[in-house]
Amino acid sequence: MLITDLRTHPIAIADPPLRSSYGLHAAYALRTIVELESDEGVVGISETYGSEGQVRQLEALRGRIVGASPYRLSGLLSSMVEGQGAGAERSQNYALPGENPLDATTRTYAAIEVACLDLIGKTVGQPVCELLGGRVRDEVPFSAYPFFKQAGGGGQGEDSRTDEYGEALSPETLVRQVQQMVAKYGFGSIKFKGGVLEPDLEIETIKQLYRALGPQVPLRIDPNSAWTVETSVRVGRALSEELGRGGYLEDPTAGLENMREVRRRLVAEGIRTPLASNVAVTSFADIPRSVQLDAVQVILSDHHYWGGLRQVQHLARMAKTFSIGLSMHSNTHLGVSLMAMTHVAAATPHLTYACDTHYPWQSAEDEVVLGGRVPIVNGCVRIPDKPGLGVELDYDQLARGRERYAKCHYRKRDDEAEMRRRIDPNWKRILPRW
Amino acid sequence: MLITDLRTHPIAIADPPLRSSYGLHAAYALRTIVELESDEGVVGISETYGSEGQVRQLEALRGRIVGASPYRLSGLLSSMVEGQGAGAERSQNYALPGENPLDATTRTYAAIEVACLDLIGKTVGQPVCELLGGRVRDEVPFSAYPFFKQAGGGGQGEDSRTDEYGEALSPETLVRQVQQMVAKYGFGSIKFKGGVLEPDLEIETIKQLYRALGPQVPLRIDPNSAWTVETSVRVGRALSEELGRGGYLEDPTAGLENMREVRRRLVAEGIRTPLASNVAVTSFADIPRSVQLDAVQVILSDHHYWGGLRQVQHLARMAKTFSIGLSMHSNTHLGVSLMAMTHVAAATPHLTYACDTHYPWQSAEDEVVLGGRVPIVNGCVRIPDKPGLGVELDYDQLARGRERYAKCHYRKRDDEAEMRRRIDPNWKRILPRW
After folding, report:
1. Measured between CB atoms, which of A71, A86, A313 is closest to B130?
2. Can you tell me whether residue A16 is helix, strand or coil?
3. How many CB pairs (< 8 A) connect A and B?
């Protein structure tokens, strides 16, 4: 079986005006859908970050992809992920996920690897998780992912959307947003995007969530490095009960040294809330130093930038070996990415937390998966009884996404510029802000 | 595709009287050949340690294996390899490989995983290395593995063998043995089993090898923990030139603390010969402490006891991440194991040394692979252009191996007892001896 064609589809999908310490989500998020067709007429698909750069990087590999066996391509391209030994610092504290030049090669590799696995799975009639060593669970738990946000549901012009959640810029409206999301999807844990309001308001938000949902629902807060060490310790102390029951404090502050200091001070006070990260540890090269400092107790995997599904499995084994927890990071995505995340999570024994997902923020109007949105039931996505990733493309919807990409003026993600454009012309990302 | 039958074949193969710090190889080595048959009539095979215990452990899984999908079995049995987090010490300093109760589950799991991968590969027409993410090399380099030995080639009674290498109990005869082996197989590196003669004689042996083969042939010595820290440092110092050119000093002394001390003292003298191990680090649980101490700079992988091919890939990624080299350990084996070793090595980018193999010590009369012995050319084994492991069973030869097992009195490996029986009735394994 050989690959006879590579097709890359840049698409734009409406994205609500979500807030974070990076700024504001633009009216459209960009994604790239990849198709690999085999000489048997089977098509394997994947989804990754969208930008002109990402499409260019994929197209640059065309000569190595077309004519290759999907079984051998990961090996042939392995230098794209194997460059990462110990040493090089790849912190993403400033670079938005998908825009960090240091992980451009692992991002591109991952998109190819997933499409190859889907192609193989569809050819031999096996779900992708079984190609990765076999599932250890039939369904994968995801977390609700509440954001402070402006009103509205994204899109522009006649494509602009209303939004079932509305504005949330206070603890009370955030709690309401979570309750809506939990009622709709059945999530059993909550990852709250902080770093937007004053820390005291975010502490209050977590406290209200804890009262509203009860101690059996694990809570996490992720201010995307918006805080000083001092503020991080203060928040960790104030929320020791609320985050300590199966939750974590994610990237409160920037850099491994600062994370270590927060950890050291919290532990000295008897507070063992784990610190999680997807910016201080974003590649294998970051792990030795993080282990040495005990800077990060939970790593957020993400096959999109860690270099694919097998690299996430390696990461999980490493995390288990060093007594580090494993969770999963998410960016704005559609159902193809959701299924890739679900398959690797299903085939990864050491997944110690429910995965993040932005999926509730997207809508059926933008889904490119045939048959519509992937169901999340009781907070979980099930591995479907279908080969490959278990989803196929809806080519009409894909064409709509491409059209929207052609029309909209976004060509890369820039939350800071969007914040200036729509909220505050003088806004700047400041780390630490508080 | 479902598995309809499990067949386990205990076999005995003639083994020359090789010496090590464990004692003496018995006249027969025991192996177990595993067959998994699918409902499509395809048979997947593997080879592992032989002993009554090993066969029993495999047979105990029959109820979970028969009726399962080979794609899902590794996942279903994953608790057998996932038990190993940080913590539990699994040192094999005293237990012979294959006889350590602490890795009984990972050994058994590995035998099943390899047979499943062979079954899948033979079903879909792909070599096993491509099922593991794809080869990064078409051929895998192995090392010559010279031993001090008594005369003779193993076997008993009318099955007793002559041996092309003869006795080797001096530096000169060992060098001759290596030259014969290099001439026959083209090996480009040498792993010398020490711990048998006085350290000064083993230093002299390495020095003669270095003079005979030249500095371009990497040399390793493995005394199986026979030395004190003091002696280890003395040998490391005496052989800094000879082992320092791409070779290593393997398990000179027992335990991570002692290995650390040897390393510390050699580095203080400016000698950076890496220390390798397959007894101080034999499972993921050993790695954090080894990293912390910088006790081991090269880990010897071995899919037979690390828990299969995928676990070796995880190990390799971990080793690369922590700037640790990766080599491969070997026990007495036939062609099925050799091919499993070759496939995982082919699909493992971070393999930084030629692999060990005992294969030259076995003979065509015992090979169970159809068509006879797997060729080693220019020191390398090539991935054949065939599905699965690339080898099939010769059922007549398998029957002969079973018959020999039934006749011989060995039921587990015990080199110490064999040493007492055939060489010195008062012999005891003493660590450290020198």
Report:
1. A71
2. coil
3. 111
Q: Kindly write down the DSSP assignment for every residue of B48-113, as one continuous string.
A: EE-SHHHHHHHHTTHHHHTTS-TTTHHHHTTHHHHT--S------SSSPTT--GGGHHHHHHHHHH
CA dist B414 and B422 (Å) reads 13
In a mutational test of the A interface, the residue from B1, B321, B322 whose CB has the highest number of chain A CBs within 10 Å is B321
Whether residues B134 and A82 touch (CB distance < 8 A) is answered with no
**If 0-12 CB within 10 Å is exposed, 13-18 middle and 19+ buried, where does residue A168 land?**
buried
- DSSP, res A147: B
Distance (Å, whole) CA B113 – CA A268: 45
Q: Chain A residues with CB inside 8 Å of B74's CB?
A: 133-134
**What residues have CB less than 8 Å from B142, skipping those under 6 apart?**
B185, B187, B354, B355, B356, B357, B359, B376, B379, B380, B381
Pairing of strands B28-38, B3-14: antiparallel
Option in A82, A86, A133 nearest B349 (CB): A82
Q: Look up tokens 């499972």; give the residue.
A: B283
- Mutation target among A39, A40, A72 for the B interface, most CBs of B within 10 A: A72
ipTM of the complex: 0.96
> Based on the number of CB atoms within 10 Å of its own CB, is B211 exposed (0-12), middle (13-18) or buried (19 or more)?
exposed
Q: pLDDT tens digits, chain A, 434 residues: what are they?
A: 999 999 999 999 999 999 999 999 999 999 999 999 999 999 999 999 998 999 999 999 999 999 999 999 989 999 999 875 544 545 556 677 777 777 889 999 999 999 999 999 999 999 999 999 999 999 999 999 999 999 999 999 999 998 999 999 999 999 999 999 999 999 999 999 999 999 999 999 999 999 999 999 999 999 999 999 999 999 999 999 999 999 999 999 999 999 999 999 999 999 999 999 999 999 999 999 999 999 999 999 999 999 999 999 999 999 999 999 999 999 999 999 999 999 999 999 999 999 999 999 999 999 999 999 999 999 999 999 999 999 999 999 999 999 999 999 999 999 999 999 999 999 999 999 99
* Token representation of residue A414: 């820039």
To 5 degrees, how large is the angle CA A120–CA A125–CA A127? Answer: 75
φ/ψ of residue B31, rounded to 5: -135, 160
CB A46 within 8 A of CB A328: no
Are the C-beta atoms of residues A21 and A412 closer than 8 Å to each other? Answer: no
Contact: A318, B320; criterion CB under 8 Å:
no
